[in-house]
Amino acid sequence: MTEADPQYQVAVVGGGPAGLTTALYTTRLGHDTVLIDRGGGRAAMMQETHNVIGITEETSGNELLRTAKRQIESYGADTVRGMVSAIDGEVGGFELAVGDDSYTAERVVLATGFSDQRPDPPLPRTGRGLHYCLHCDAYMFIDESVYVMGHSESAAQVAMIMLNFTAEVDVLLRGEEPEWSEETDRQLRAHPIDVIDEEITGMNRGEDGWLESFEFADGTVREYRGGFPMYGSDYNADLVDALGVERTDGGAVAVDDHGRTSVKGVSAVGDLTPGHNQIPVAMGEGAKAGIGLHYDLREFPKSLEELDGGSVDPASTPAVSAEIREAARRRDESEAPTADD
């Protein structure tokens, strides 16, 4: 740690919906916050945004994230583009290495998510026939022909779930042997689902870029509007493990109701944690983590023990920094009515 290190109360690592919402709450609750984001991520891949109330479907993931980043900056948060390579220290004094720079913070929030495992090509474009979120995108395929790609237990279960939305569902094994149980095999084959063994050898797309059909090794061509690859995911957990944060049996980070982990001063939110991988869920987790951090960091009220018979010096209020006060002043001025209003 050096004198030149920028110092914050909260450092959020990861700029997806969970991390951005955490930074929004901590900043608006008066805590100097930096959000460090390497770019990319699952939300950035979205061609359209689904299931976020108040956000229309044509909003892309990148547009959503850009707007959110501008929003937190307007309240006084700092944003840094880069990848955190290491975190050292303990509650009250963590040091985060980002390239040749470093930042210090009293608390750290990990929002690094996970990466979906992609099957081998040929594949349609993500969001144009290749979809990773059943709860986000199933509605799009009502009465459409759908594939589920994979050979795991999850692939079989998702295929059966998709019958709630369409009568045309195939499981594409792509030459792999099924790994689901015998019980699941009996269950799957009792549903009106075709299990296709052959590998995919070609793909056809329409003028709009959407998938139209796959070609298979046996010479058949089957039409699909889109589908879901089910090959698992990898947690982006290098920092989690370096800090010694406890994980669940499934690999997610174990957290309490406000995102606090087993390591004091370290929180986790979003796809790193157990539960549904949905933008509104991630936002809710970010909000609760931000509020939890406020409980931990706020200056007032002072306890009777802290007061020790004395009283609070009025000059010590308000507790927010000059930077956040200045951001609030700028916002007040920009939102003030003009003579023409």
TrEMBL record:
Listed GO MF terms: oxidoreductase activity
InterPro entries according to UniProt: FAD/NAD-bd_sf, FAD/NAD-binding_dom, Ferredoxin-NADP_redctase_2
Pfam families listed in its UniProt record: Pyr_redox_2
Residues covered by region (Disordered): 305-341
Domain FAD/NAD(P)-binding: 8-286
Compositionally biased region (Basic and acidic residues): 323-334
Protein name per the record: Thioredoxin reductase (NADPH)
Protein species of origin: Halolamina pelagica
Source taxonomy: Archaea, Methanobacteriati, Methanobacteriota, Stenosarchaea group, Halobacteria
